[in-house]
Structure formats: C-alpha cells, structure tokens
Amino acid sequence: MKEADEFMKYRSPLVSRYASKEMAYNFSDRKKFTTWRKLWIYLAKAEKALGLPITDAQILEMESHELDIDFAMAAEEERKLRHDVMAHVHTFAHCCPAAAPIIHLGATSCYVGDNTDLIMLRDGFDILLPKLARVIDRLANFAEKYADLPTLGFTHYQPAQLTTVGKRACLWLQDLAMDMRNLQRPRDDLRFRGVKGTTGTQASFLQLFQGDHDKVEDLDRMVTEMAGFKKAYLVTGQTYSRKVDVDCLSSLASLGATVHKICTDIRLLANLKEIEEPFEKDQIGSSAMPYKRNPMRAERCCSLARHLVALLADPLQTASVQWLERTLDDSANRRISLPESFLTADIILSTLQNITEGLVVYPKVIERHIRHELPFMATENIIMAMVKAGGNRQDCHEKIRVLSQEAAAVVKQEGGDNDLLARVQQDPYFAPVLGQLDTILDPKTFIGRAPQQVTRFLSEEVRPMLEPYRAKMDVKIELEL
Residue 296's closest CA among 311, 308, 282, 279? Predict the structure, then answer.
C-alpha cells in the first residue's frame, strides 16, 4: 500500500527518472540530517577540547546515534514547533538524554543549515567534475579519430568553407574546457560558514568562553577542519553570503548553455544524416513512424539544459533581496534551486557522456554533401589555376559566374545535382586546367590547418586538464531511460 501511495503524489522526474544515485543521495534528507548531527558532534568535541564542561560519555552517546534518525518523530516535532532545526534538536536529544543539554550549544540554526549546504555544494562539485572530465575525454578521442575527415562547415546554417569533423568537435571541447575551469573555481573557493552565531558576531561563543577571543577563533578553526574545509569565511551575517550560491549556480548555468549548443549541433547533423547519437537495438524512435531515429538523448539534454540555465535567476534574485544580516525568504527557494541545479547538471553530463561514447559518423553521407557544394567553393581555385596557365582573370571570372548560375538553377529550380564541374569540363575555355581538376577539387585541400589545430589543442590544453581525473576515466554510463 505504501508503494502505491507514492504514485498518488508528484515526484520530481529529476530523481525518479534521471539523476544518478550519488547525486540524488547528496541532496537527500538522510545526508542532510546526518550531516546536522555530525556538525553537532564536531561542535561538542571542539567545545570540550577548549574547556567547556562536556564529557566523553556525552560525545560517545551522540556518536552512537549519529545515523539512527527517527524521521517520523522529527516530522511530528516540526509540525508542533514550526522550526526544522529545533525539531531535529529535540529528536536527537530524545535518543541522547545525557547529551541533550549540550546539543547545539551556542549555535544558531544556520550553523547546521548553512554549513550543511556548503558541504553539499562541495560534494556536488566533486561528483560533477569527474563526469565532465569523462565527457571531455570521450569527445577528445572522437576529435582525434576524425581530425582530418573533411566536412562542410556552416555559417548562418548555410554551407561555408570546409572544416573537419574533429575540428568541429574541438569547438565543443573548447567550451567544455572552459566549463571545467568554471566549475573548479567555485568549488575551490568554497569556504565553511563555521561557528559564527546569530548575526555573525560570535557573541554567544564569546560568552561561553568568558570573553576569550582566542578560544572562539580556535573553535571556529577546529570545527572548520573537522568538516573538511581549509578555510571559513571571516565575516558572515546570520548566513554565508548568498553571492556564493550565485557563483556556484552561474558555473552550472554556463555548463547548461554549452551542452545545449553541443546537442543542438548534434541534432542538426542528425537531420543531415552525417552524425547520429547512439540508437539501441530495440529503441523506438516514433510511435507512429517506425523508420524514425529521433535524437532523443540530445533532445533531453537541450530540454534539461534550458531548465538549468533558467535556475540561475533564483540565486541572483535571492542574493539581491537579503535584508541586512538575513531574511528567511531565501530558505524555501534554496531548497529547490540548489539541489535542482546540481541534479540537472548531473543528468545532462551523464547523458552527454552516453552520447559521446557512441556517436556514429557517416563518412559517405558527408562526402556526398561535400561533392554537392564543393564545385561552387572551388571556383576561386579554378580561376587561379587558369591565370597560372596564361588566362585572363576577368574573363575566367565571367565564365565561372555564368556556369555557376546555370548550375545553381539546376539545383534550386529543377532539384537536380550540382553539375558545375561537368559544365567546366565541357567548356573548351577550361581545357588548360582539366588535368588539374581532381587535385583542385580534393576536399583535403580545403580544410586548411584543421588537423594540425586539433592535434595541438588536444595535446596542449585538453589532455593535461584531464590528468587529475585519470583514475576515474573508466566509468561507462548506461542510461536507464
């Protein structure tokens, strides 16, 4: 019956359909409230070490009940008290009667609330960064494999000068490399709120230690180190600055923009039948059209990336409307925007890894598209060859212009193939260069330094960036949906 009841209420698809277990756990109630208890234990240990009358027995009692949270009791307490932190203080105290008098001693709600959020943000980045590294690694392998495969470039989504499949992948990689740096910076900049009291002045702890400023500073440092942080913010109000949330979610929103661009490109190329995302043996593309191979993974990434970008508005507005030392109108918003940003980023990185591990390239289709456009692109090269053979540049230009417009009319008005090359071959004027046409029209002569750019970019910028994550590269992603 309980299982059936779950389907009678809304469940976020971020968790029920898509997110990894590790990221779903990172923002779970279990992690949140066990972290609260750890923080109360850290505080008690530090206060005892600095001379407050707290016993080993009290700390041992707290440690023995760190994980056995009575969630039903906590929910009932919150209904009565209308205060989530005090509800859990009472619930913890219920199973730790000896330690009850010293739980949360000198602290304010943000001691557990904000510090736990900072731990979750840090751990969230530590989940995302290796996933981003794996996406970059898979895409780098793809770029290296196809570094010299010519393909049509597009500007304004109109055929332009040739590039290579690998060089285009490097454009995607460049943005992802920027995202790697963008995610690493706020992760490394994160500090602990620490032990600051109700308005950030540490007045309650100064009173506990009878005016001993050194002990208050030692308390802050000791708890910060126990929580795994190197530094705490030196000044806070009741909360840490909500600009920290802006920094964190800005990097995720920027990642969302990158993924949306990459997956839009893949969708456009899938329409051209040049590149496709993985398509499983029993996968159905359309309920009505059995022949279809829809790019559903790339479409999912685009859909969720828009959500990720849109979530940035929340911390920006929250930071802008915090009054003086703090207002509580941040709380309900942050319960949604912080987890959803990390969950969404987690999902799109897992999905993008799956895509990049199985991208399918169709060189023959790419070659056909090149053949269709290349005669137009080669006209300048034909003119130069004619001039070298003794021809007049202006006369040759006019000949090519007329033939090009005739060939364009065949393509656009009659739906035929581009026959410019055949027209050139049939015109006696171009007899001096007919033997050079195969060389002039070799696609590899139109790709410039694309292969060399790929090689240098991968070796100098991409591969070194992945070294810290080398031990985590072998994880393969299998999507459940």
Answer: 279
- What is the DSSP secondary structure assignment for residue 17, as one 8-state letter? I
Q: Above 70 in pLDDT, residue 14? A: yes
State the amino acid at position 454 in one-letter form: V
The Cα–Cα gap between 480 and 21 comes to 12
Helix ranges, 146-242 (H): 165-189, 203-208, 213-226
Closest listed residue to residue 42, CA positions, set 110, 93, 111, 109 = 111
| Mean pLDDT on 309-322 | 95
Residues with catalytic function: 156, 286
Q: Which two tokens stand for residue 368?
A: 């056909």
Find the angle CA(150)-CA(156)-CA(161) to the nearest 5 degrees. Answer: 30
Q: What's the burial of 265, exposed, middle or buried (CB within 10 Å: 0-12/13-18/19+)?
A: middle
Q: Partners of 275 in the beta sheet?
A: 361
The tokens describing 208, both together, are 């506990």
Cβ–Cβ < 8 Å for 57, 48: no
Q: For 423-459, what is each residue's pLDDT tens digit?
A: 989 999 999 998 888 888 899 999 999 999 999 999 9
Measure the CA–CA gap between 232 and 225, rounded to whole angstroms.
9
Q: Which residues, 6+ apart, have CB-to-CB distance to 56 below 8 Å?
A: 48
Residue 367: count of CB within 10 angstroms of its CB? 16
